[in-house]
Write a structure and sequence with these properties.
Layout lengths: L20 E5 L6 H13 L5 E3 L18 H13 L3 E4 L3 H9 L4 E4 L1 H4 L2 H10 L7 E4 L6 H13 L5 E5 L17 H9 L5 E3 L1 H5 L5 H10 L4 E5 L17 H9 L16 H36 L7 H17 L4 H29 L1
Parallel strand pairs: 1-2, 1-8, 2-3, 3-4, 4-5, 5-6, 6-7, 7-8
Helix pairs in contact: 1-2, 5-6, 11-13, 12-13
The structure holds phosphoenolpyruvate and manganese (II) ion.
The site of manganese (II) ion has 4 residues, from loops.
């Protein structure tokens, strides 16, 4: 499947101050003071090319902070004037588009919930007919590549040629260490179908947790994504939205400095070599194994608490025998050597016992 998008090259509408391209700013504009101090500190790092802030926030439940609204655009206008950096905001209705254009917003983005709804994207595309402004389209909340492509196509058909995609991960029922599963194969597939379309990674909404951000950033750069959008707040812990995933401006610099930016275009050169391709595959498998292990340990903790509350010993030999027997048999079917499977399981089992013993000791300490 080839996607035909008529695009203006990224370099013609995005000025990259320093590599990698970073777009940073708070999840939400909250107060003038918060916007100005955050944006000033971000600009002072010299590592950020564009400012972001949410003005209208799509909240799951009503009654939560739903964005400051139009006044926030005035604050962003001040931040832009003072820092000289362009600004980007999320638009979800034609009225948002009107307001954003009136207030000199440089780049618009379409949020994940909006991309999931073709009516919404079409309304936005219609409101942008005849307007020359870059638009970034986040992936839809559900892992549907066609819907993502459809959103980009709707805008392109309305005459928007300055387009980028934002990879912010996908909602999944299964709870893992990510807030939104990265499902890297989807943006990679988008890139394969449309190599000239820039893809920006949003590690903040993928991780939902600031500790994991550097790993996702690095992975995105290794997959040759064109930039990063990182939620940054002057005082992340007291942010009104997404407090767990925002970083301070000083942490942002550390994160950026810790990244390895390869000069070669890995996607087109290295990526096409078999070895690099296979290594990427291994990296993905290792990542998912670690996620699964982490998931397993969380269940182990629950079992530990349950055993403690019911006064059951940590180790039940019969259960362990059963695990070894069933898993080595399953391993054999999967063509894994039984000695290897046993050693592997033993390692996991030892760690599980250690964790459960800790839980038991915690209680002993508490009584
Ligand atoms: C955001 O960028 O703050 C946001 C709401 O993102 P998403 O649409 O990816 O949830
Ligand atoms: Mn957010």
């Amino acid at each position: 499947m080839k996607i035909e998008l008529d695009l203006v090259p990224f370099s013609e509408w995005m000025t990259i101050k320093t590599k990698p391209l970073v777009i940073a700013g708070p999840c939400s504009a909250e107060t003038e003071e918060q916007v100005m101090t955050t944006c000033r500190a971000i600009a002072a790092t010299g590592r950020v090319s564009m400012l972001r802030a949410g003005i209208w926030k799509p909240r799951t439940r009503p009654g939560e902070f739903e964005g400051i609204g139009n006044i926030g655009l005035e604050w962003l206008q001040h931040a832009k004037a003072e820092t000289g950096l362009p600004v980007t905001v999320e638009v979800a209705t034609a009225a948002h588009v009107d307001q954003a254009l009136k207030m000199g917003v440089d780049v618009l983005w379409i949020g994940a919930r909006s991309t999931a709804n073709p009516f919404t994207v079409q309304e936005l595309a219609d409101s942008l007919k005849g307007v020359d402004i870059p638009v970034m389209v986040k992936n839809p909340v559900n892992p549907d590549l066609q819907l993502w492509i459809g959103g980009l196509e709707r805008l392109n058909k309305a005459g928007i040629k300055k387009l980028a995609a934002i990879h912010r991960g996908f909602s999944s029922y299964e709870k893992t260490s990510f807030r939104n599963e990265p499902m890297w194969e989807l943006p990679v597939s988008l890139k394969t179908h449309c190599p000239e379309l820039p893809i920006i990674n949003d590690p903040s909404h993928i991780t939902g947790n600031r500790e994991l951000i550097p790993f996702v950033d690095q992975k995105a750069l290794d997959l040759d994504m064109q930039g990063l959008m990182i939620e940054t707040h002057i005082d992340p812990q007291s942010a009104w939205t997404d407090a767990k995933q925002q970083v301070s401006p000083s942490r942002l610099v550390e994160i950026i400095e810790g990244l390895v930016v390869s000069e070669t275009n890995s996607y087109n050169a290295d990526f096409s070599t078999k070895l690099a391709e296979l290594r990427k595959e291994i990296d993905q498998i290792d990542d998912s194994m670690l996620q699964k292990l982490s998931q397993r340990m969380r269940v182990v903790e629950q079992i530990g608490r349950y055993k403690r509350d019911n006064k059951v010993t940590v180790l039940q030999v019969s259960r362990w025998d059963e695990i070894i027997r069933k898993r080595t048999e399953y391993g054999r079917i999967l063509q894994l050597e039984s000695g290897f499977v046993e050693t592997f399981l033993e390692l996991i089992h030892n760690e599980s016992i250690r964790q459960q013993t800790d839980i038991l000791n915690e209680e002993v300490k508490n009584v």
